[in-house]
């Protein structure tokens, strides 16, 4: 089969003769992929930043498709069902899964204490990803979510990650009716954090980024764009909120603009190579005594973390990897009844064969907001 394979930093290739996955355990299914997306966190892999990602692994943790084959003990889905699959792999039976803490499954990752993720290297379980013609999905009585008749796989696709992860950001930040919210980063997760903040009753949502195409998508979702190349997001947010500040969501993580030498802001206030740029803005822009939601990925320790300011302004932090199953069914229903159309985010529809080009385009960002590929 054809698959998108990691060969090294900035080197993603199509392998034509990858063996088709087969049932390895009685609770496995083999899924024929019909839609798959590239995620911002695939770019962390693409940049060679993820430990345990070795050449030869199939990429991709955002995918939907048709069940082609089921193991002997699979009862919850059958051949021909269309499903969307969460990026985190959940056994359904360990202590964490039984308590709904899906992203910390104790059994799915034989390599360590973190829960497993599709297509994310040995440290995250070593499972092949879904940017391929087929993928093996384990624990199929727990993991896949059936797509209702009236929805396409493309409409349900972002329930694999970015819609749920954006909602998780708004949930962690405890967005309440009437809140003013600031979403830092208008990439796919930021976009859905904007959508989700409004679903939870936000009065106003500010979207902070510097890519016009991304700010434009956020604006279409109802946000007020702030381009940090043109204005200081902290004073803008303060000015618009009678100096109170906003409920803040960090949908960027450690690869903020300036983290890479090639990717600098025109804003002179921006400190190059400062991975904590977003946190340093948030600690000043956040409304006192609120919770900052951080669905953006952080990987290492930071000596200059502004802990004192967090204490003084009585800010809480909630962060981590979204437990997708906590949200995907409810969010699916919002799509089903037409309240949310996630396909609005898509800027590029491409063939799986074009994946190397798609990774390069998504990495450069520019006018790319989300790439969906069809095998
Ligand atoms: Zn993702
Ligand atoms: Zn588990």
TrEMBL record:
InterPro entries: ADH-like_C, ADH-like_N, ADH_Zn_CS, GroES-like_sf, NAD(P)-bd_dom_sf. Residues 188-255 form the Alcohol dehydrogenase-like C-terminal domain. Its EC number is 1.1.1.1, 1.1.1.284. Pfam families: ADH_N (PF08240), ADH_zinc_N (PF00107). Keywords: Metal-binding, Oxidoreductase, Zinc. One of its GO terms (molecular function) is S-(hydroxymethyl)glutathione dehydrogenase [NAD(P)+] activity. The keyword Oxidoreductase applies. Its cofactor is Zn(2+). The keyword Oxidoreductase applies. Residues 27-145 form the Alcohol dehydrogenase-like N-terminal domain. Gene3D superfamilies: Medium-chain alcohol dehydrogenases, catalytic domain, NAD(P)-binding Rossmann-like Domain. It comes from the Archaea. Belongs to the zinc-containing alcohol dehydrogenase family. This is Theronine dehydrogenase-like Zn-dependent dehydrogenase. It comes from Candidatus Nitrososphaera evergladensis SR1. The lineage of its organism: Archaea, Nitrososphaerota, Nitrososphaeria, Nitrososphaerales, Nitrososphaeraceae.
